[in-house]
């Protein structure tokens, strides 16, 4: 019984010599824990998906400007000023500071606006 307590104490205080059987058992147990524990223990450490905009934004180079196609559901279409403000607000986190040159709505076969095409350019400094 005393020998069993010595072995347990050597495991707790990590006093076994390297290369010995008890040392190898301890290292094996640690490796098993590292590789198998995530399958049985929920650590809740999955990365959170960060999507800056919940909309589809397509970027197309167009000569000196860039063409962005933005889903219509992301744009408040009450008037021209609000549409321009919304488009800039959606594009700037993606492209940085921009100048909105022009935009045009894209209609489906029924005539509903499905997206907006926005031509933007970086400001000259």
Classify the secondary structure makeup into a structural class: alpha+beta
C-alpha Rg (nearest Å): 30 Å
Kindly estimate the percentage of residues that lie in beta strands according to DSSP: 15-25%
How many helices? The count is 3
What is the number of domains?
2
Strand order of the largest sheet: 1-2-4-3
Can you give me a brief rundown of this structure?
By secondary structure, the chain is an alpha+beta fold. Helix content is 38%, strand content 25%. A four-stranded antiparallel sheet has the order 1-2-4-3, covered by helices on one side.
Write the layout of secondary structure elements.
Blueprint lengths: L1 H12 L7 H20 L16 E6 L2 E7 L8 H16 L3 E9 L5 E9 L4
Antiparallel strand pairs: 1-2, 2-4, 3-4
Q: How does this model look, in words?
A:
The chain is an alpha+beta fold and 125 residues long. Helix content is 38%, strand content 25%. The chain is built from three helices and four strands, in the order H-H-E-E-H-E-E. A four-stranded antiparallel β-sheet has the order 1-2-4-3, covered by helices on one side. The longest helix is centred in the first third of the chain and has 20 residues. The N and C termini lie far apart (83 Å).
